Every structure is written in C-alpha cells, then in structure tokens.
Amino acid sequence: MYSITAASLLLRGQLANSAEREGLRVIPGVYGDDATKTPILDANGKTIKNTTSISAFDYFFSDGFGAYGPDDTNLYDRTTFRLRELNLGYNIPKKWLTKTPFGSANISFSGRNLWFYCPNILKGLNLDPEVLSDVSTSNIQGIDLGAAPSTRRYGVNLRVSF
Q1: Whole-model pTM above 0.85?
Q2: How far apart are CA 123 and CA 16, in angstroms?
Q3: What does the alpha-carbon distance between residue 146 and residue 150 come to, in Å, rounded to a whole number?
Q4: Residue closest to 79 by CA, chosen among 117, 123, 114
Q5: Which of 71, 79, 60 is nearest to 129 (CA)?
Q6: What residue spans define the domains of the chain?
Q7: Which residues, 6 or more positions from 73, have their beta carbon under 8 angstroms from its beta carbon?
Q8: What mean pLDDT comes out for the span 105-130?
Q9: Which one is predicted more confidently, 46 or 22?
Q10: CA nearest 73: which of 59, 87, 89, 93?
Q11: DSSP letters along 103-151, please?
Q12: Is the pLDDT assigned to residue 153 strictly greater than 50?
C-alpha cells in the first residue's frame, strides 16, 4: 500500500520519526551502481552496507518525498491484526423471570472494529489499510490519501419472549 497520508505527515515533521530534525541519518540499505542499478559488491561478493550519513533535512525533504524517493518511504505492508466483531450474550435464568410476564430473556452486547494493529505502518499514523479514501470513485486499490480509521460501533440488545 502506498500512503500519501504518511508522505504528507513526514514532510511536515508531524510523525515521531520525523520530529527530530537535527543530526545525521543513515538510509538503511546497501551501496549501488547508478548506471546498472545493481548493488556494489565487496571482494567476497557480498553487498556493502550503506554507512554514508546525510542531514535530517535531506533525509526527509529531498526530491521525491524524501531521500528514498516516492516509491520507498511510503510503501507499507498491509498486514493487519484486528478484532473485527465481538458479540457477548447472556440468557437470563427462567427462575429470575417467574414473577414477570416474560417466558425468556436475553441480553447481548456487540461491537465492530474494536481494535486493529498494523505492525509495519509508522507508529502514530493510526492508518487502517482496509479504509482507503478519496479513491472510492475509481478502481484504484492500495493507495491511501487521507483515510480516516474505520468506525467503531457498539450495541446493546435486549430480547424477550412472552
């Protein structure tokens, strides 16, 4: 999923990992050859880890939404753990209903979208990958553009019979 929301918040320094604007940063990855677009290898044939530091400003504000370019920084794995629906019900014992006009009674509580956790999305973003906004009028999938989290719903039900 590509998140324009994350790109915008990072550029404005509104997420925890972009709030620190001083100091140097090292982009995770390996050195590469611009001409061949392949990793540079050491004498043993292994990739060479990047150790070049750049300023926080260049890290977040260079061409293409940051040092990675538009295709890397804001791509996220949509793996999500969620508690989508929960229903709890209780049948009221008949002995409690003997002095009432009711033959049986049940009370239940329900909830939808009670919790979700996306381990691969920036902390503080609160982005629900199942809700992608501003693209609902087209067939675009996998792009977030200012999506709000899904709505939580709670309910109580009392069912009686005579």
Answers
A1: no
A2: 7
A3: 12
A4: 117
A5: 79
A6: 1-75, 78-162
A7: 6, 7, 10, 65, 66, 67
A8: 84
A9: 46
A10: 59
A11: SEEEEEEEEEEEEEE-TTS-TT----TT---S-TTTT--SEESSPPPPP
A12: yes
